């Protein structure tokens, strides 16, 4: 099996945890919401979290490597919102040398206003 489908599955599983602890998974990481997202109403933040969690519109244009590591949504209050998954080493100081290896990788999912990019 190629590494990209594995990464896509891992990233989808990690993203599906957004805001909810899931037990029995080795997908460790952090969720980061930028100041622009945090400044929105709680209702909008929750709506954005759900949209990011449930995102499944991956195309050649927005996911050319098939990793399911980026998406963009439109939100009534926030406008365009981006989310991105990055791969770090277990200390979160450098990039991961092997993103599909749980022992060597921690994910960071960042949700931001497009204007913060």
Automatic annotation (TrEMBL):
Which InterPro entries does the protein's record reference? DUF3768
Query: Would you say which domain of life the source belongs to?
Result: Bacteria
What the entry lists under Pfam families is as follows: DUF3768
Query: In its UniProt entry, what is this protein called?
Result: DUF3768 domain-containing protein
Q: What is the lineage of its organism?
A: Bacteria, Pseudomonadati, Pseudomonadota, Alphaproteobacteria, Rhodobacterales
């Amino acid at each position: 099996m190629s590494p990209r489908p594995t990464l896509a599955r891992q990233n989808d599983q990690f993203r599906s945890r957004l805001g909810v602890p899931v037990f029995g998974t080795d997908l460790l990481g952090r969720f980061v919401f930028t100041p622009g997202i945090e400044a929105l109403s709680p209702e909008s933040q929750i709506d954005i979290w759900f949209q990011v969690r449930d995102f499944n519109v991956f195309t050649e244009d927005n996911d050319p490597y098939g990793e399911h590591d980026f998406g963009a949504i439109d939100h009534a209050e926030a406008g365009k919102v981006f989310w991105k998954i990055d791969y770090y080493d277990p200390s979160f100081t450098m990039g991961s040398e092997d993103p599909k290896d749980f022992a060597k990788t921690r994910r960071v999912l960042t949700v931001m206003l497009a204007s913060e990019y």
